[in-house]
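Memo to structure team: turn this sequence into structure tokens by end of day. - J.P.
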Amino acid sequence: MNQVGNPALEAEERVRDILVSIGLQDTLAYRQTSPEREARIYVGRKAPEGLEYVRLRNPITPERTVMRRSGMATMLELLEHNAKFRPGLALFELGPVFLPVEGETLPHEALRLSIGMTGAWDTASWDKAQSQPMDFFDLKGVVEALLDGLHLTEVRFQAANHPSFHVMGELHPQVRKNYAFGQDPVLAAEFDGEKLTRLSSADFANKAISSYPAMVEDIALIVDESVPADALEALIRQSGGKLLVDVRLFDVYRDEKLGSGRKSLAYQLTYQAFDRTLTDKDALNIRNRIVKQTKNVFGAQLRSL
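Reply from structure team:
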């Protein structure tokens, strides 16, 4: 007899396994809440008008009268409560939110993945000091590890405005006032779990590994403050061609000496071929193409490291 699997459930378990493997704790929270509790995720506790909730006829407490619409609101409550007892938290929850459907008795139970982090990643011990509080880059690393583990490629981070965030992923100072948080940054993210699990796949293609050595060098480019780092990186990859196998941003530098409204972005470039060992001339040709193209498109200037 052939056994039929459950792809959706298996995809959810892959998400959980990846996040647990990088150090986050799986959580299970109340599905019941109140509109007032959820409104804390907005500046001034002012939620958008017209939000509809699934209301309970016999709520267990006056504070839990409706079914939740937001996974992030629940996650922030978990962080608020548990931060009193531990110096660092890195949590996630994969569970439903309940969205009323016009003309229907039952709501749409939409799957959401919420992530919350605050405090230090590691606690102090006899052989090491406590690490620095987690920041946006820790959250970004978690998200990148998750997407990489799900084999979701060509994902881009783009700047956007959100009423709950000060910097992408870092809770807005005016929203923090709605909670009893300490001084450490509070990081949060929420994903459409249905889309995330649908796009992920247990089947993926492996890439061949070259038997020839790679060449690594750094390049720093001075550009206008308005130039996004990912846009510059995309142009570097395009200009470098197939011999440029990896590009990694490792430094952002600002100084009056660079000029008003200018910044320096430093990237580590990796060159490698599958049929031969590259020479210094190969690396120079790739570098020259990158410098020329970034200058033409973004007005970039090469900076000495």
